[in-house]
Each structure stands twice: as C-alpha cells, then as structure tokens.
Specification:
The chain is an alpha+beta fold and about 550 residues long. It has two domains: about 65-340 and about 395-410, no CATH class; about 435-535, no CATH class. Helices cover about 55% and strands about 5% of the residues. The protein has 20 helices and four strands. The chain has helices at about 5-25, 35-50, 55-60, 65-85, 105-110, 115-120, 125-140, 145-165, 175-185, 195-200, 215-245, 250-260, 280-295, 305-325, 330-335, 340-355, 375-380, 395-410, 465-470, 475-495; strands at about 435-445, 450, 505-515, 525-535. The protein has a four-stranded antiparallel beta sheet with strand order 2-1-3-4. Strand 1 and strand 2 (about 450) form a beta hairpin. Helix 4 (about 65-85) runs antiparallel to helix 7, helix 8 (about 145-165) packs antiparallel against helix 9 (about 175-185) and helix 11 runs parallel beside helix 18 (about 395-410). The protein is globular, with a radius of gyration of 26 Å. The termini are far apart. Keywords: Membrane, Transmembrane, Transmembrane helix. This is HTTM domain-containing protein.
C-alpha cells in the first residue's frame, strides 16, 4: 500500500476516533470530556502524519545500532537502582504516621487491594520489596529476561515511589527514567549489550550485528529521546504559562533561590546566601538560561549539534540547582548520557588505538565478544517489525503516541501520580520577601538547635515534610493535627536510640519572614513572625 495513503488513513482514523469520543460522551458517559478526547486524537493524528513521513526519519531520526539502544537501557536501569538503594529509604516510611498522607494518584487503587495497607506499614516487608525492586532493575540493567524485567521494574518503582511520596508531595525526581523504561518495554532493547544476547549466542541462535545500524533501533532510541526532551520542554513552558515570559525576573529568581536555601529539601550548603549582594543581572541570567534552556532541549529531537551541546548544558543547569537550591536531580544529570551514541564512541576509540582495520568486513564474526554473526543471519534474526511492510509503521506511531500523551498531559496540567505535567518552580513572586519555616529541637540537656527531620526518618528525597510542617503555623485544625502527629513521631523515633541528655523533649515550629531587599545583610535572615510548640503525646 502507498505510504502516503497509509498516512492519510491514520489521520482519518484519528479524526473519526475523536468524533466517536464526542458521541460516547454525549450518549453513554456524560462524565467524560468530549473536548479532551477530540483534542488528544487530533493531536495524535497530526504528530503521526509527521513521524510516519520517510523524510522525517531520514532528517531527524536516523538509524542506530543494538548497542546504542542497549546503552540507554543500562543507563536508565542503573539510575533507578541507585535511586532505589541510595536516595530513597522505603522501609522508613512505615514509621511515619498515616495522618500525614496525601492523595497520590494511582496509589489509591493499590490501597483498595486487600493486605496492601498492612504491607505499606511493615518495615520488614517494605525492605524486602525495596531489595526485590533493586534486583529487578539490576537484571534490567544487565539485560537478563529483559522483556519481563524492564516493565516489571518500572511497575515496582512506581509503587515504591508512590508509597514514599504520599507522605510528602508529588515530587518529580526519578519519574523521567520510569517513563523511559515504559518506552524500552516496547522496544528490542535486549538485542545489544545484554545477557540475553550472550545467552542466545552461546546457544547458537542468531542475533543482530551489534554495531550495524537499522531503523528499528533508530526509532526506539528516538522514542526515548522524545520522553526526556518533552519533559524539559514541559517544565520550561509551565513557567511561561503560570508566570509569563518574564519568570526570570531577578526578584523572582532571587526569592526562589533564597527560599530553597533557607528551607532546604536535601543539602544544607547555604551557598546562595553568599550571593545576596550579587547584581540583578546574575539572577536574570540564571533565570533566562534555566527557563529557555529547558525549552531549547526540544531541539535535540531535530539537531545532532543540539544533542552534543544541550545535554552538557543541562548537566551544568542541574549542578547549579544543586549548589544554589540544595536540590539534587541525580536522575536527570546521568540521563543526559542517552543522547550520545556509544557505538560511535567505541568505534572511534578503536580506530584511535589502531585495533580495528578500516577494511574489515562487517559480516565477519567478532570472536572477541561473541556478539556478531554474518549479515544474512542477522537480518533473519531481526524482530518481525523490521521485516514486514505491514508493521514498519509501528515505531513511528509509537513515537507519535508518547509525544501526544506528554503534550496532552502538559496542556491539561494533569497531576495524577505517576503522570505529571512537570510544573516545577513555575510560580512568580516579585515582592522580594520570602517566608520559610524552621524546626527547633529542645533536648533534655537544655541544648536547643535547628533540626532537619530527615536526620531522624529519611524516607523520601527532595523533601523534608515541608507541607506537613507548615500545617503547624496555619489556622487549620487538620493541618495542626497532622503536623503535631509527625513531630511526636519524630520525637519518639529519635528518643528510642538516644542516650540520656540527648533525648528530645519537644519541637518548636517557627515561621520566619525575610525582606531581603531592605535588609539584605540581616544575620538572622529575617524575623520570627509565628511559633508553634508541639503538644507532647503520651507514650
């Protein structure tokens, strides 16, 4: 069938599905949104018209090797292994009171499963689940039973991340790699750099040539790029949508940076406080490069030069966020590696070291790594999707589907875990006044100091229960009750292992306000405006 006719048919079917959605909403399910359904299908049809074009593939997608896709799998799964074992502490969440839980999207469905509540409140069971999740992700990294462990690893991490987030808020660290894993689940990512590949070679089965490029791996790699690139674009556009094109206003930027430093969610470096007297142009520069840099990441989908430069820029951006806002986006820093072709790098190193002859035939077996077979066998071993004309549009349509979903989620500003529109730091405040809270611990010895709650219970990352703690200083009885419950839990957990004299007798929550424009040199960084002393519960 003519490719143009197929493309037209896809667009027509998309339009018909949109009209069918409207009829469904009017006749069968009035609770559905006719506008949303029509918008999504028209969006999908428009993107599919572009991605199914042969010219689009030649100009922007290109071919890739099994090794390139395998490297993306390794990078993504390695990130999630470290997130699971290093940055998240799932078992500790069982110590937190259920009164501080927040609604967390899809997690509500899991709590309807009998026994899930008791599972979520058991430290030992959560510890086992954390280890199992890390093991599955590790197996995905090395590529053993890849077709099973990649989607299973993504599913397990969604549960793990949801349990932790429900005690804090819907933070975004660790989600983008999960999205990439969902994409990898639909691709032949085990064809390169995997135990599955080596096992097939050992059993005498044919496998694709590891360093021979083809369209199927090019589209698979491009689908992963789409997830990461559109995530950055969504984050940048959210700032424009909520705060306008001048979100980078120096007053707003200074407020964001200083408030993140004085009420930190991870580190306590206070580097930004040393910049209080810095000129406004510095903060404007940080804002402009941050917001428009995120939007510019979309160029990696269309330019090889952008794929060489912008990932490095994003690493620098995240390092700046780490030092100036005390927030570590470990996953996004490492994930930039997927934009680089490791097959080209490896081949370049071989040529540089003189270990590979230019005239070596590609169909000659590679006895060093036992991976390559002759060209005829490799073509026979390729997935069916690359051989049948009736299936060659699978990957362009997959790319269009994921792109349409991400654009639709951003347009509708959907926040339903694990789905997010990435509205990070998109607010605007040019009052040049910032508010922040402190938790003050009073010890038996009489010693009084500021304390960060994650030093006692470190379940989630990128947060220190700030939403719950702020409830103590708001005129909201439910918020005060939740905050008091958390403070008593922290006190009880700390005192179980504290030596005499080091036990905490009470916590005090303080609300501070700093006018950094009129009092930039204030050594106290503002003044105390409100204080709350916890009500100690009987143990």
């Amino acid at each position: 069938m003519n490719i143009r006719l197929i493309r037209i048919s896809i667009c027509c079917v998309s339009a018909l599905l949109g009209l069918f959605w409207i009829v469904l909403e009017r006749v069968v399910a009035p609770n559905l949104s006719a506008q949303d359904g029509l918008l999504f299908f028209l969006l999908f049809g428009s993107i599919a018209w572009v991605t199914t074009s042969p010219a689009f593939f030649r100009r922007y997608v290109g071919e890739a090797t099994p090794e390139s896709l395998g490297a993306i799998r390794i990078i993504t799964c390695a990130i999630q292994v470290l997130m699971t074992l290093w940055l998240e502490d799932l078992p500790s969440s069982a110590l937190l009171p259920i009164e501080i839980r927040h609604s967390m999207g899809a997690m509500s469905y899991f709590y309807n499963i009998p026994g899930f509540e008791s599972f979520a409140r058991s430290q030992s069971e959560l510890q086992i689940f954390e280890w199992i999740t890390a093991l599955i992700l590790f197996l995905g990294m090395i590529g053993w039973k890849t077709r099973i462990v990649i989607p299973l690893g993504a599913f397990c991490y969604i549960i793990l991340g949801g349990i932790v987030r429900q005690y804090t808020w819907f933070y975004h660290t660790g989600l983008i790699p999960v999205y990439v894993m969902v994409v990898l689940s639909l691709t032949p990512c085990a064809d390169g750099l995997s135990v599955d590949r080596l096992w097939n070679v050992y059993r005498g089965k044919t496998v694709p040539v590891s360093d021979e490029a083809s369209a199927i791996y090019g589209w698979s790699r491009y689908a992963c790029w789409v997830i990461v690139a559109l995530s950055y674009v969504a984050a940048g556009l959210s700032k424009i949508y909520k705060s306008g094109f001048f979100w980078w206003d120096p007053a707003n930027m200074k407020g964001i940076i200083l408030s993140s430093t004085l009420d930190p969610v991870q580190a306590n470096w206070e580097v930004a406080l040393k910049l209080i007297h810095a000129p406004d142009i510095l903060f404007a520069f940080l804002g402009i490069t941050g917001m428009y840099g995120e939007i510019a990441v979309g160029l990696v989908l269309f330019s090889k030069i952008a794929r060489q430069i912008l990932p490095i820029c994003m690493v620098m951006l995240h390092l700046g966020i780490l030092f100036l806002q005390d927030i570590l986006f470990f996953d996004l820093i490492v994930l930039q590696l997927i934009f680089y072709d490791f097959t080209e790098i490896r081949q370049g190193i071989k040529r540089w070291r003189g270990r590979e002859s230019i005239n070596v035939r590609k169909n000659e077996p590679n006895n060093n790594d036992l991976k390559d077979v002759n060209d005829r066998q490799a073509r026979e071993a390729l997935p069916t999707a690359t051989k049948g004309e009736n299936k060659k549009l699978y990957y362009p349509i997959m790319v269009a589907t994921f792109a349409a979903i991400m654009i639709f989620v951003w347009f509708r500003h959907i926040e339903f875990y694990p789905i997010t529109s990435l509205q990070m730091f998109s607010g605007y405040n040019n009052s040049q006044k910032i508010g922040y809270t402190k938790i003050i611990a009073h010890y038996e010895s009489g010693f009084v100091t500021r304390l960060y709650p994650d030093t006692i219970i470190h379940a989630p990352m990128n947060t220190r229960y700030r939403l719950t703690i702020r409830g103590c200083i708001l005129d909201n009885p439910k918020g005060v009750q939740s905050c008091n419950k958390l403070l008593n839990t922290l006190r009880r957990v700390h005192n179980k292992t504290a030596i005499p004299g080091q036990k905490i007798t009470k916590f005090e929550v303080q609300s501070w306000l700093w006018d950094f424009n009129n009092n930039p040199s204030d050594p106290d960084y503002g003044e105390l405006v409100k204080s709350y002393t916890m009500q100690v519960e009987e143990e």
